[in-house]
Amino acid sequence: MTEKTAPSTLARTVLQQCLHARLQVRPPDGESEGEWVEIDRGMVIYICFFKGATEEILPRMVSTLLNLKLCENDSGKYVSVFELPGNVLIVPQATLGGKAKGKGMQYHSNVGKEDGLRLYSGFVALCEKELQTGRGVTIKHGTYGNRQVLQLDTNGPYTHLVDF
Amino acid sequence: MTEKTAPSTLARTVLQQCLHARLQVRPPDGESEGEWVEIDRGMVIYICFFKGATEEILPRMVSTLLNLKLCENDSGKYVSVFELPGNVLIVPQATLGGKAKGKGMQYHSNVGKEDGLRLYSGFVALCEKELQTGRGVTIKHGTYGNRQVLQLDTNGPYTHLVDF
Protein backbone atom coordinates (compact mmCIF):
# COMPACT_ATOMS: atom_id res chain seq x y z
CA MET A 1 0.00 0.00 0.00
CA THR A 2 1.34 3.39 -0.90
CA GLU A 3 0.43 6.81 0.40
CA LYS A 4 -1.75 8.34 -2.24
CA THR A 5 -2.95 11.47 -0.48
CA ALA A 6 -1.48 14.48 -2.24
CA PRO A 7 0.25 16.79 0.27
CA SER A 8 -2.23 19.50 -0.65
CA THR A 9 -5.35 17.62 0.50
CA LEU A 10 -6.94 19.80 3.19
CA ALA A 11 -10.22 18.03 3.82
CA ARG A 12 -11.78 14.67 3.00
CA THR A 13 -15.46 13.83 2.71
CA VAL A 14 -17.25 10.56 2.11
CA LEU A 15 -20.86 10.88 0.96
CA GLN A 16 -23.58 8.26 1.27
CA GLN A 17 -27.21 8.46 0.25
CA CYS A 18 -29.84 7.31 2.75
CA LEU A 19 -33.53 6.67 3.18
CA HIS A 20 -33.11 7.20 6.90
CA ALA A 21 -30.14 7.81 9.19
CA ARG A 22 -29.91 8.09 12.95
CA LEU A 23 -26.87 9.35 14.87
CA GLN A 24 -26.16 9.50 18.59
CA VAL A 25 -25.16 12.99 19.71
CA ARG A 26 -25.05 12.33 23.46
CA PRO A 27 -24.14 8.92 24.85
CA PRO A 28 -26.38 7.31 27.46
CA ASP A 29 -25.39 7.73 31.10
CA GLY A 30 -26.89 6.62 34.39
CA GLU A 31 -29.70 9.14 34.14
CA SER A 32 -30.64 9.12 30.46
CA GLU A 33 -30.76 6.93 27.38
CA GLY A 34 -28.66 9.26 25.30
CA GLU A 35 -29.75 11.65 22.59
CA TRP A 36 -30.05 11.07 18.86
CA VAL A 37 -30.63 13.13 15.74
CA GLU A 38 -32.14 11.65 12.59
CA ILE A 39 -32.93 12.47 9.00
CA ASP A 40 -35.09 10.85 6.40
CA ARG A 41 -34.14 10.72 2.75
CA GLY A 42 -30.95 12.58 1.96
CA MET A 43 -27.19 12.51 2.25
CA VAL A 44 -24.74 11.59 5.00
CA ILE A 45 -21.50 13.62 4.89
CA TYR A 46 -18.57 12.10 6.80
CA ILE A 47 -15.93 14.79 7.19
CA CYS A 48 -12.28 15.08 8.24
CA PHE A 49 -9.81 17.97 8.08
CA PHE A 50 -6.07 17.75 7.47
CA LYS A 51 -3.19 19.88 8.71
CA GLY A 52 -3.09 23.21 6.89
CA ALA A 53 -6.87 23.48 6.49
CA THR A 54 -8.36 26.90 7.26
CA GLU A 55 -11.84 28.44 7.18
CA GLU A 56 -11.04 29.62 3.64
CA ILE A 57 -11.92 26.23 2.15
CA LEU A 58 -15.32 25.95 3.86
CA PRO A 59 -17.48 27.95 1.39
CA ARG A 60 -16.18 25.94 -1.56
CA MET A 61 -16.70 22.66 0.29
CA VAL A 62 -20.27 23.46 1.30
CA SER A 63 -21.18 24.78 -2.13
CA THR A 64 -19.72 21.71 -3.84
CA LEU A 65 -21.25 19.11 -1.54
CA LEU A 66 -24.75 20.59 -1.41
CA ASN A 67 -24.87 21.03 -5.19
CA LEU A 68 -23.38 17.74 -6.39
CA LYS A 69 -25.96 15.71 -8.29
CA LEU A 70 -25.76 12.56 -6.15
CA CYS A 71 -29.39 12.09 -5.07
CA GLU A 72 -31.76 9.94 -7.10
CA ASN A 73 -35.19 11.51 -7.42
CA ASP A 74 -38.47 9.67 -7.94
CA SER A 75 -37.88 9.59 -11.71
CA GLY A 76 -34.46 7.95 -11.28
CA LYS A 77 -32.66 11.15 -12.28
CA TYR A 78 -29.71 12.36 -10.18
CA VAL A 79 -30.12 15.77 -8.63
CA SER A 80 -28.49 17.68 -5.77
CA VAL A 81 -29.68 17.33 -2.18
CA PHE A 82 -31.02 20.90 -2.55
CA GLU A 83 -32.99 19.98 -5.64
CA LEU A 84 -34.36 16.68 -4.26
CA PRO A 85 -35.07 18.28 -1.71
CA GLY A 86 -33.40 16.00 0.79
CA ASN A 87 -31.80 16.20 4.19
CA VAL A 88 -28.19 16.26 5.31
CA LEU A 89 -26.52 14.50 8.24
CA ILE A 90 -22.97 15.67 8.97
CA VAL A 91 -20.76 13.14 10.79
CA PRO A 92 -17.31 14.17 12.09
CA GLN A 93 -15.03 11.29 11.13
CA ALA A 94 -11.37 11.85 11.93
CA THR A 95 -10.60 8.24 11.00
CA LEU A 96 -10.90 9.28 7.33
CA GLY A 97 -7.49 10.91 7.70
CA GLY A 98 -5.83 7.62 8.53
CA LYS A 99 -3.08 5.97 6.52
CA ALA A 100 -2.32 2.29 6.80
CA LYS A 101 1.16 1.57 8.15
CA GLY A 102 1.79 -2.10 8.67
CA LYS A 103 -1.25 -3.49 10.48
CA GLY A 104 -2.14 -0.19 12.13
CA MET A 105 -3.52 3.15 11.04
CA GLN A 106 -1.70 6.43 11.60
CA TYR A 107 -3.34 9.84 11.72
CA HIS A 108 -0.32 12.12 11.42
CA SER A 109 -1.89 14.26 8.69
CA ASN A 110 -5.02 15.05 10.70
CA VAL A 111 -5.56 18.58 11.96
CA GLY A 112 -5.29 19.07 15.74
CA LYS A 113 -8.41 18.69 17.86
CA GLU A 114 -8.98 22.41 18.54
CA ASP A 115 -8.61 23.40 14.91
CA GLY A 116 -10.66 20.38 13.91
CA LEU A 117 -13.54 21.42 16.15
CA ARG A 118 -13.38 24.99 14.85
CA LEU A 119 -13.40 23.87 11.19
CA TYR A 120 -16.14 21.31 11.81
CA SER A 121 -18.31 23.89 13.60
CA GLY A 122 -17.71 26.37 10.78
CA PHE A 123 -18.67 23.75 8.18
CA VAL A 124 -21.90 22.93 10.02
CA ALA A 125 -22.76 26.63 10.48
CA LEU A 126 -22.21 27.33 6.80
CA CYS A 127 -24.38 24.36 5.78
CA GLU A 128 -27.10 25.67 8.09
CA LYS A 129 -26.77 29.16 6.59
CA GLU A 130 -27.11 27.77 3.06
CA LEU A 131 -30.12 25.85 4.28
CA GLN A 132 -31.93 29.08 5.11
CA THR A 133 -31.95 29.87 1.43
CA GLY A 134 -32.83 26.31 0.50
CA ARG A 135 -36.13 24.56 -0.07
CA GLY A 136 -36.98 22.41 2.90
CA VAL A 137 -33.57 20.81 3.42
CA THR A 138 -32.94 19.84 7.05
CA ILE A 139 -29.39 19.64 8.38
CA LYS A 140 -28.48 17.56 11.42
CA HIS A 141 -24.99 16.87 12.73
CA GLY A 142 -22.95 14.81 15.14
CA THR A 143 -21.01 16.03 18.17
CA TYR A 144 -17.31 16.51 17.41
CA GLY A 145 -15.14 14.17 19.48
CA ASN A 146 -17.98 11.77 20.31
CA ARG A 147 -18.20 8.17 19.21
CA GLN A 148 -20.48 8.43 16.13
CA VAL A 149 -23.00 5.68 16.81
CA LEU A 150 -24.81 5.53 13.48
CA GLN A 151 -27.67 3.60 11.95
CA LEU A 152 -28.13 3.85 8.21
CA ASP A 153 -30.90 2.63 5.95
CA THR A 154 -30.28 3.02 2.22
CA ASN A 155 -31.67 2.24 -1.18
CA GLY A 156 -28.03 2.00 -2.29
CA PRO A 157 -25.42 4.11 -0.44
CA TYR A 158 -23.89 5.27 -3.71
CA THR A 159 -20.69 6.03 -1.78
CA HIS A 160 -18.49 8.86 -3.09
CA LEU A 161 -15.19 10.30 -1.96
CA VAL A 162 -14.59 14.02 -2.46
CA ASP A 163 -11.27 15.50 -1.36
CA PHE A 164 -10.60 19.24 -1.11
CA MET B 1 -11.92 20.82 -5.79
CA THR B 2 -8.83 19.35 -7.38
CA GLU B 3 -8.15 15.87 -8.62
CA LYS B 4 -6.14 14.23 -5.89
CA THR B 5 -6.11 10.63 -7.08
CA ALA B 6 -2.57 9.71 -8.01
CA PRO B 7 -2.48 8.16 -11.50
CA SER B 8 -1.16 4.98 -9.94
CA THR B 9 -4.20 4.25 -7.76
CA LEU B 10 -5.50 0.85 -8.88
CA ALA B 11 -8.18 0.13 -6.31
CA ARG B 12 -10.06 2.05 -3.64
CA THR B 13 -11.68 0.66 -0.52
CA VAL B 14 -13.77 2.32 2.17
CA LEU B 15 -14.06 0.36 5.42
CA GLN B 16 -16.80 0.71 8.04
CA GLN B 17 -17.27 -1.23 11.25
CA CYS B 18 -20.71 -2.60 12.01
CA LEU B 19 -22.75 -4.36 14.67
CA HIS B 20 -25.03 -5.66 11.95
CA ALA B 21 -25.26 -5.14 8.19
CA ARG B 22 -27.78 -6.38 5.64
CA LEU B 23 -27.36 -6.18 1.87
CA GLN B 24 -29.74 -7.02 -0.94
CA VAL B 25 -28.20 -9.46 -3.42
CA ARG B 26 -31.29 -10.05 -5.58
CA PRO B 27 -33.92 -7.35 -6.04
CA PRO B 28 -37.59 -8.22 -5.50
CA ASP B 29 -39.63 -9.11 -8.58
CA GLY B 30 -43.22 -10.14 -9.16
CA GLU B 31 -42.62 -13.58 -7.70
CA SER B 32 -40.30 -12.99 -4.76
CA GLU B 33 -39.36 -10.44 -2.13
CA GLY B 34 -35.71 -10.34 -3.10
CA GLU B 35 -32.77 -11.95 -1.40
CA TRP B 36 -30.47 -10.53 1.27
CA VAL B 37 -27.21 -11.48 2.96
CA GLU B 38 -26.30 -10.25 6.42
CA ILE B 39 -23.49 -10.22 8.91
CA ASP B 40 -23.31 -9.42 12.59
CA ARG B 41 -20.35 -7.66 14.13
CA GLY B 42 -17.53 -7.00 11.70
CA MET B 43 -16.42 -4.89 8.78
CA VAL B 44 -18.05 -3.63 5.60
CA ILE B 45 -15.64 -3.30 2.67
CA TYR B 46 -16.82 -1.04 -0.17
CA ILE B 47 -14.59 -1.71 -3.17
CA CYS B 48 -13.86 -0.16 -6.57
CA PHE B 49 -11.19 -0.91 -9.17
CA PHE B 50 -9.51 1.58 -11.49
CA LYS B 51 -8.14 1.23 -15.02
CA GLY B 52 -4.87 -0.67 -14.99
CA ALA B 53 -5.81 -2.92 -12.06
CA THR B 54 -4.95 -6.61 -12.49
CA GLU B 55 -5.30 -9.75 -10.37
CA GLU B 56 -1.74 -9.11 -9.17
CA ILE B 57 -2.89 -6.58 -6.58
CA LEU B 58 -5.55 -8.84 -5.04
CA PRO B 59 -3.39 -10.82 -2.57
CA ARG B 60 -1.90 -7.64 -1.11
CA MET B 61 -5.34 -6.02 -0.85
CA VAL B 62 -6.91 -8.98 0.91
CA SER B 63 -3.97 -9.46 3.25
CA THR B 64 -3.94 -5.76 4.16
CA LEU B 65 -7.68 -5.36 4.69
CA LEU B 66 -8.21 -8.53 6.73
CA ASN B 67 -5.22 -7.78 8.96
CA LEU B 68 -5.67 -4.05 9.61
CA LYS B 69 -6.40 -3.39 13.29
CA LEU B 70 -9.69 -1.54 12.81
CA CYS B 71 -12.09 -3.60 14.95
CA GLU B 72 -12.70 -2.68 18.58
CA ASN B 73 -12.82 -5.75 20.82
CA ASP B 74 -14.70 -6.05 24.09
CA SER B 75 -11.77 -4.50 25.97
CA GLY B 76 -11.78 -1.43 23.71
CA LYS B 77 -8.55 -2.52 22.00
CA TYR B 78 -8.31 -2.40 18.21
CA VAL B 79 -7.63 -5.72 16.51
CA SER B 80 -8.05 -7.11 13.00
CA VAL B 81 -11.31 -8.63 11.80
CA PHE B 82 -9.49 -12.00 11.91
CA GLU B 83 -8.47 -11.48 15.52
CA LEU B 84 -11.87 -10.17 16.69
CA PRO B 85 -13.11 -12.57 15.19
CA GLY B 86 -15.63 -10.65 13.16
CA ASN B 87 -17.41 -10.94 9.86
CA VAL B 88 -16.88 -9.26 6.51
CA LEU B 89 -19.42 -7.87 4.05
CA ILE B 90 -17.99 -6.94 0.64
CA VAL B 91 -19.95 -4.32 -1.31
CA PRO B 92 -19.05 -3.53 -4.94
CA GLN B 93 -19.16 0.26 -5.15
CA ALA B 94 -18.08 1.68 -8.50
CA THR B 95 -19.17 5.16 -7.39
CA LEU B 96 -16.00 5.31 -5.26
CA GLY B 97 -14.09 5.91 -8.49
CA GLY B 98 -15.99 9.13 -9.20
CA LYS B 99 -14.44 12.57 -9.48
CA ALA B 100 -16.47 15.72 -9.10
CA LYS B 101 -16.59 17.84 -12.24
CA GLY B 102 -18.84 20.84 -11.87
CA LYS B 103 -22.08 19.58 -10.33
CA GLY B 104 -21.72 16.06 -11.70
CA MET B 105 -19.54 13.06 -11.04
CA GLN B 106 -17.39 11.44 -13.72
CA TYR B 107 -16.13 7.87 -13.64
CA HIS B 108 -13.50 7.96 -16.37
CA SER B 109 -10.86 6.26 -14.20
CA ASN B 110 -13.02 3.26 -13.38
CA VAL B 111 -12.14 -0.12 -14.83
CA GLY B 112 -14.53 -1.49 -17.47
CA LYS B 113 -17.44 -3.65 -16.34
CA GLU B 114 -16.04 -7.00 -17.49
CA ASP B 115 -12.68 -6.44 -15.86
CA GLY B 116 -14.42 -5.00 -12.83
CA LEU B 117 -16.51 -8.13 -12.39
CA ARG B 118 -13.46 -10.37 -12.81
CA LEU B 119 -11.43 -8.41 -10.25
CA TYR B 120 -14.35 -8.21 -7.83
CA SER B 121 -14.97 -11.96 -8.11
CA GLY B 122 -11.27 -12.63 -7.60
CA PHE B 123 -11.21 -10.40 -4.52
CA VAL B 124 -14.21 -12.21 -3.01
CA ALA B 125 -12.76 -15.63 -3.80
CA LEU B 126 -9.45 -14.72 -2.19
CA CYS B 127 -11.20 -13.40 0.92
CA GLU B 128 -13.14 -16.66 1.12
CA LYS B 129 -9.94 -18.66 0.72
CA GLU B 130 -8.26 -16.72 3.53
CA LEU B 131 -11.37 -17.35 5.60
CA GLN B 132 -10.79 -21.10 5.45
CA THR B 133 -7.66 -20.60 7.46
CA GLY B 134 -9.34 -18.10 9.76
CA ARG B 135 -11.14 -18.47 13.05
CA GLY B 136 -14.85 -18.23 12.52
CA VAL B 137 -14.87 -15.22 10.19
CA THR B 138 -17.86 -15.24 7.85
CA ILE B 139 -17.63 -13.46 4.48
CA LYS B 140 -20.71 -12.27 2.62
CA HIS B 141 -20.80 -10.16 -0.52
CA GLY B 142 -23.00 -8.17 -2.85
CA THR B 143 -23.81 -8.91 -6.48
CA TYR B 144 -21.63 -6.94 -8.88
CA GLY B 145 -23.68 -4.56 -11.01
CA ASN B 146 -26.71 -4.60 -8.68
CA ARG B 147 -28.03 -1.66 -6.74
CA GLN B 148 -26.46 -2.22 -3.30
CA VAL B 149 -29.47 -1.78 -1.02
CA LEU B 150 -27.77 -1.69 2.38
CA GLN B 151 -28.79 -1.37 6.00
CA LEU B 152 -26.07 -0.67 8.52
CA ASP B 153 -26.13 -0.62 12.31
CA THR B 154 -22.94 0.56 13.98
CA ASN B 155 -21.40 1.42 17.30
CA GLY B 156 -19.40 4.03 15.37
CA PRO B 157 -18.60 3.34 11.69
CA TYR B 158 -14.95 4.33 12.19
CA THR B 159 -14.76 4.98 8.44
CA HIS B 160 -11.37 4.49 6.75
CA LEU B 161 -10.18 4.94 3.20
CA VAL B 162 -7.46 2.61 1.92
CA ASP B 163 -6.21 3.04 -1.63
CA PHE B 164 -4.02 0.51 -3.40
SS field, number of helical segments of chain A? 2
Q: What is the mean pLDDT of chain A? A: 93
State the share of residues found in helices of chain A, binned by percent.
Answer: 10-25%
**Distance N to C terminus of chain A:** 22 Å
| CA gyration radius of chain A, whole angstroms | 16 Å
**Which structural category fits the helices and strands of chain A?**
alpha+beta
Largest interface between protein chains, with number of residues from each side: A-B, 45 and 45 residues
Instruction: Outline the low-pLDDT stretches of chain A.
Output: none
Query: In percent terms, what proportion of residues of chain A is strand?
Result: 25-35%
**Count of β-strands of chain A:** 12
Q: State the major sheet of chain A.
A: 5 strands, mixed
Shape of chain A: globular
How do the strands line up in the largest sheet of chain A? 10-7-4-1-12
| Quaternary organisation of the protein chains | homodimer
Write down the secondary-structure element order of chain A: EEEEHEEEEEHEEE
